[in-house]
Design brief:
The structure is a homodimer.
Chain A lengths: L2 E5 L14 H8 L5 E5 L6 H15 L2 E4 L6 H7 L3 E3 L4 H10 L3 H10 L4 E4 L1 H4 L28 E6 L13 H8 L8 E5 L2 E6 L2 E6 L3 E4 L6 E3 L14
Parallel strand pairs in A: 1-5, 2-3, 2-4, 4-5, 6-7
Antiparallel strand pairs in A: 1-8, 7-10, 8-9, 10-11
Bound molecules: calcium ion (2 copies).
Chain lengths: ~240, ~240
């Protein structure tokens, strides 16, 4: 059974690292998981990042191993009880997943073996159909924008409305997503506001957290969904 | 002699399309140029975009041909008196330049034949070393992030400082550029604020416009440069 917790962002402005989603993470992993495999590839300083993840998950009651400190990345994925991919730069993250040749292995562990997957920000982007709706700067060239395809739609993390007082002329987030939908066969995009997350359990998907989400479907007007909404219909679209 | 006018953005909040850079464009093209070849590839609706460019350049005293309405894109580049590449989505723009097989031809016309090149926003991104410092969403996968390499550095158009009142947790522009500079051999990034542009004439580069620019060099603190600053040193870096 597929189980995913896809979080918009790791840190809310009024809380510590993973503070706002602590309860959801504990409930998601339960006491069946003892050790979480952390993937720090989205940031440059992996040792620092692994320390930060370890600190948070230790207070939640879990051990953490960072994949970059294991002798064999593929072996680490194959033995993982649960995977947490942290945020940072989505391009760097996806390129490293391809470089380490673990894209297919993660898919198999999550979709076939049913190990729990937690993603935050860039880690949520790579869980979806593609990274084409990341907000990040393309600082490095991955071999593809296709991502782990654990779900058949896209996510836009840190989703936000434009600031009405701002005179900046760059595209709004909604305009950017509309440009994505100018392409045929572009899947739905779930805009997860900071504080929001999506729980996927097999064929059921539910919005959790403190804030709402906005769904963009090609050719349709965007629709707001409140915390608690059943989003299972998103899992029925085909890739 | 290489001649470029690289504009941060086409529209300032208090003016019409290309209104804020009208005088600089007229002085740059002078009366030697009669017809400008417009490249609308960064936006989906090319006819609409060509009309908008035509309207603006007509009031400046130039004819406009849009490359998408020519029978042969490569032939149009080879016969152009001047090229203007407009803004939109940088990934879509660069992919189309590669798809149309005109990357090398534009380089040759600008660097060898010396025809004037005007870029705005995405059109400025593609003029540089790479598109790795665009702000745009990666809605489509280009065959490379390498760009036209008309100059040996990168540009970040629409450059802006973070809003001090904003609690949003996404990376600031400066943090994103710092992540780009975590890679060895990453070239300088010129952050052009809206209203700012860079004039390049052979080995001389000068900031023009109403606003200042901020230069980011790997391993160094960023430096502010005022309108009128001589930026020629940026042309000496090698790719
Ligand atoms: Ca990020
Ligand atoms: Ca743009």
């Amino acid at each position: 059974m597929r189980r995913l917790l896809l979080i918009s962002n790791s840190t809310l402005h009024d809380g510590g690292y993973l503070g706002h989603c602590k309860e959801q993470i504990k409930q998601f992993l339960s006491d069946k998981v003892k050790t979480v495999l952390f993937v720090p590839y989205a940031l440059h300083d992996r040792d620092w990042y692994a320390g930060k993840a370890k600190e948070a998950f230790t207070t939640f009651g879990y051990d953490v191993q960072s994949i970059h400190q294991q002798p064999d990345a593929l072996g680490a994925i194959n033995q993982a009880q649960a995977i947490f991919i942290g945020g940072g730069n989505t391009f760097r993250l996806l390129k490293t997943l391809y470089d380490e040749k673990i894209v297919e292995a993660i898919r198999k562990r999550v979709l076939e073996d049913g190990i729990p997957y937690i993603g935050s920000s860039a880690g949520s982007n790579v869980a979806t159909a593609s990274i084409k709706t990341t907000n990040d700067m393309p600082i490095v060239y991955p071999p593809s924008f296709d991502a782990l395809k654990l779900v058949p739609f896209n996510i836009n993390p840190h989703y936000m409305e434009p600031d009405a007082n701002n005179t900046h002329m760059g595209e709004t987030r909604e305009q950017r997503i509309k440009q994505f939908h100018e392409y045929e066969d572009s899947p739905p995009v779930l805009g997860l506001r900071e504080g929001c997350m999506l729980l996927v359990e097999d064929r059921k998907a539910t919005l959790l957290g403190k804030t709402d989400a906005k769904l963009f479907v090609r050719g349709k007007d965007p629709v707001e969904y409140k915390v608690g909404s059943d989003m299972s219909f998103l899992l029925q679209s085909t890739l």
